[in-house]
Design goal:
Length: about 220
C-alpha cells in the first residue's frame, strides 16, 4: 500500500546513513562541491538523496536562532531532462539553476526519486506518446489510469528533519510542494520562484502546468 501523510499522521523519523563529498562539473563548466546525504527510514523505501550546498551548515544554524531560512529545493527526478537534456520539459535547466542558487545562498537540494510525477519512467514515456496524440500532460496520466500527480513529499520532510532543517525558503513554482510540506510540519516562510526555462518544445507542457496545477510561471500568451 502506498504511504500517504494524511493516513499515518506525524512524519516518522529518518536518520542520516552516509554523507560524502561529490564534486560536480556541469556541461557548461559550472562546478559545485555538495555534501551528499543518504538516509535510513524513508517511508517509501526509495533511494532519495540530499545535496547540501554552499555554506549550508551556517545557513541551518542561523535559521535555528531566528535568522533567514535556508534555501531548499525539492526536485523530482526526470531522467530524460536531468541527464539527457530533454527539451520536452524544463527539468534540466531548473536543476542546474537550483544547484547554483542554493550554492550561493547555502541550503539543500532534495533529489527525489519521483520520476514522471510519481508514475515512473516507462509510464512517463507512455504519457509522452499520448501527448503526441493530443492530450496534455495531466490528461495523459489520467488516460493511463494514473493520478495527475502522484507525488507525496513525506520523504522530503523526513530528510529535512534529519538534517536539522525546520524552516525553509522553498525554491519552486509548484504550490503543492509548499502546501504538502507545511502540512508535514516544515515551516515554508517563502516560496521562491525558479526562472522560466522556455523552449518551443516545452511551451505546451509549461502552459498546462500553469493552467492546471497553478504553477507560478509568467508565460507568454498562446492563442
Ligand atoms: N507524468 C509526467 N511526468 C512528467 C512529464 N513531464 C515531466 N514530468 C515529470 O515531472 C516532474 C517535474 O518535477 P519538478 O522539477 O520537481 O517540477 P514541478 O513539480 O513542476 O515543480 P517546480 O518545483 O516548480 O519545478 C519530474 O518527475 C518529471 O519526470 C509528463 O509529461 N508526464
Ligand atoms: Zn523533465
Amino acid at each position: 500500500m502506498m504511504y500517504t501523510s494524511s493516513e499515518l499522521g506525524p512524519v516518522p523519523p529518518a536518520a542520516i546513513r552516509t554523507q560524502v563529498t561529490v564534486p560536480l562539473r556541469f556541461p557548461d563548466g559550472y562546478t559545485a562541491v555538495p555534501r551528499v546525504f543518504s538516509f535510513d527510514g524513508l517511508v517509501d523505501g526509495r533511494e532519495h538523496i540530499a545535496l547540501a550546498l554552499g555554506d549550508w551548515e551556517r545557513a541551518i544554524d542561523r535559521s535555528l536562532v531566528g535568522g533567514p531560512a535556508p534555501l531548499v529545493r525539492p526536485h523530482s527526478e526526470c531522467l530524460t531532462g536531468d541527464v539527457f537534456g530533454s527539451e520536452r520539459c524544463d527539468c534540466g535547466p531548473q536543476l542546474r539553476e537550483a544547484v547554483e542558487r542554493i550554492a550561493d545562498a547555502g541550503g539543500i537540494l532534495l533529489y527525489l526519486r519521483q520520476e514522471g510525477r510519481g508514475i515512473g519512467l516507462y509510464a512517463k514515456l507512455d504519457a509522452y506518446a499520448l501527448q503526441d496524440g493530443g492530450l496534455d500532460t495531466y490528461e495523459a496520466n489520467l488516460a493511463l489510469g494514473r493520478g495527475e500527480d502522484e507525488r507525496d513529499y513525506t520523504v522530503a520532510a523526513q530528510m529535512l528533519t534529519a538534517l536539522g532543517v525546520e524552516r525553509v525558503a522553498l525554491l519552486t513554482n509548484n504550490p503543492d510542494k509548499t502546501a504538502q510540506l507545511e502540512r508535514l510540519g516544515i515551516k515554508v516562510e517563502e516560496q521562491v520562484r525558479t526562472r522560466l526555462h522556455l523552449s518551443e518544445a516545452n511551451l505546451r507542457y509549461l502552459t498546462a502546468k500553469a493552467g492546471r496545477s497553478a504553477h507560478t510561471l509568467d508565460l507568454p500568451r498562446v492563442d
